[in-house]
C-alpha cells in the first residue's frame, strides 16, 4: 500500500458529550464491531474500577481512570479508526480540550431526554473553532425522551449548527418501534428482545409495503408526518456544510440496546474526513501524504508507572510514516531524538508499534524532553505547527510551599509542570502570590501529587473556587481597576487579566469601564 492509500483509510475522531450521555456505552459498541473487545462491559468495568489494575499513577488508580483507553484503534471495513478519549466527570481537564486539536472529526453524543448539556456545549465550541465535521448521535431512544423536532431545533438555537436528521425515530421508550432511515431508504425495526435488526425497504413514495403491520401503526404515521415536515421545511443535506462544521448529520438510536449504532458507524465512515493538512507557524500547510514525517505533542501523561519516572508524550502524526527507531528533530530545541520506545494504544493493551501514518497517534516514552505543543519532524526543512490554543481556566487555588525552606524545589516543580501544560500559573499583581488555574478539579490533585512525588515538595492549596478569567489590553490597564470583586493577576506571558468573582462582578466592571475590552481565551 502506498502512503497516500494508507492515509486515506484513517479516521481519527473524539466523542464529545456530557457525563452519562452514553459515551462509554457507544465506544464499547464500536469496539465490539471492530472486534477489539469481545464482550460489552470491558471499558465500563475499567471505568468503575473493577478492572485489573496495573501500574498506573496512584491518583489515577484511585479514580479508576484508564490510561490505556486514551486512544483506541481498530479496523472496520477497510478503515483504520482511532478514537481519542475525552475524559469527563472529575477528570475533565485541559487535556480534554487539547485532545480535540488532534482529531479530524467529532461525534457528539446527546442524551435525547436531556438535550444539549454544559460540557457538550464547551467541547462543541472547540470543534466549531477548528471547523471540523461533527456527527451527532441522539442516544437513549429506548427511554422516553424529548420531541425529536425539539432536539433538532435546539442544535441550531443553542449551538448554532444546522441539524440534518439522517433517520427519524418511530416511537420511543416503551413504544419504540424502529427508525425511519432517510439516508438508506429503509425502516429498521426495533426488537427489545434481540440484537438483530430487520430492515424494510422503502418504495418510491418513501413508504413501507402495505402488508407490513407497522404501516397502520400510529407511531409510524407520526414519523412519516414529521419526515414530510422536515423534508419541506428542514435543512438540505449539504456535504460542504458538513465538512466545515456548519451542518451536523443527526442519527437517533440507543447505544445500550445496540440499535442504530452500526448504521451510524457505517454512515459516519462514509462521510468522515481522512486526515487533513496541518498549518505551520511558517504559514505552510503540511499535507498528510508528505514523505517527511511530522507530528505534534498534544498531551503528556505523567508517571504511569510509579517505579519509573516515565511519562508518555502523545503525538498526533500529521504527515509521512513513523518507523520504529527513526530519528526526528525536536523543533523547539533542535535536538535529534530517536523514536525507539514508542507505544500505540489498543483498547486493552499497550503494544509496541512498528509503523504508523498521518492520522495515527503514537505514545513516546519520555524522560522530560517533550512539552505540549512540541513539533517533531524528519528532514532538513524546519517545521513548527501552530501553537495549541490556551484555554480559559474556571477553577483557581492559591498555592504555596508548606516548608518555606524548600522554595527551590517548589519553584522548579511549578515551573516544569506549568511548562508541560499540566496547569496554568498566575501571579497576583499586588502580593506576588502564586495562583493556579484549571478547567477541572483533578488537575490540582495531580499537581499536588506530582509536586510531592517528582519534586519532593509539599504544597498548600487554598481553594478560591470558580472565577471568570478575562484578559485586558495592557494599554487600557489601570491598577486601580482592581477591587474587592476582582483580582488582578498576570499570566505566564506577563499578560494582565482579571479574575472576577462571578458574572455580576464582570458586568459591574463593564458598566464602570465601558471602553475597556475584556477577552476570554477559548
Ligand atoms: P458516559 O460514558 O457518557 O458517562 O455514559 P455511559 O456510557 O457510562 O452511560 C451512562 C448511563 O446511561 C449508564 O447507566 C448506561 O448504561 C446508560 N445508557 C447508555 N446508553 C443508553 C441507552 O441507549 N439507553 C439507556 N436506557 N441507557 C443508556 P448507569 O445506570 O449509570 O450505569 P450501568 O449501571 O448501566 O453501568
Automatic annotation (TrEMBL):
Keywords: Cytoplasm, GTP-binding, Nucleotide-binding, Protein biosynthesis. One of its GO terms (biological process) is regulation of translational termination. SUPFAM superfamilies: EF-G C-terminal domain-like, P-loop containing nucleoside triphosphate hydrolases, Translation proteins. GTP binds at residues 17-24, 85-89, 139-142. It is found in: Cytoplasm. GO terms for molecular function: GTP binding; GTPase activity; translation release factor activity, codon nonspecific; translation release factor activity, codon specific. It comes from the Bacteria. GO terms for cellular component: cytosol. Increases the formation of ribosomal termination complexes and stimulates activities of RF-1 and RF-2. It binds guanine nucleotides and has strong preference for UGA stop codons. It may interact directly with the ribosome. The stimulation of RF-1 and RF-2 is significantly reduced by GTP and GDP, but not by GMP. Belongs to the TRAFAC class translation factor GTPase superfamily. Classic translation factor GTPase family. PrfC subfamily. This is Peptide chain release factor 3. It comes from Secundilactobacillus similis DSM 23365 = JCM 2765.
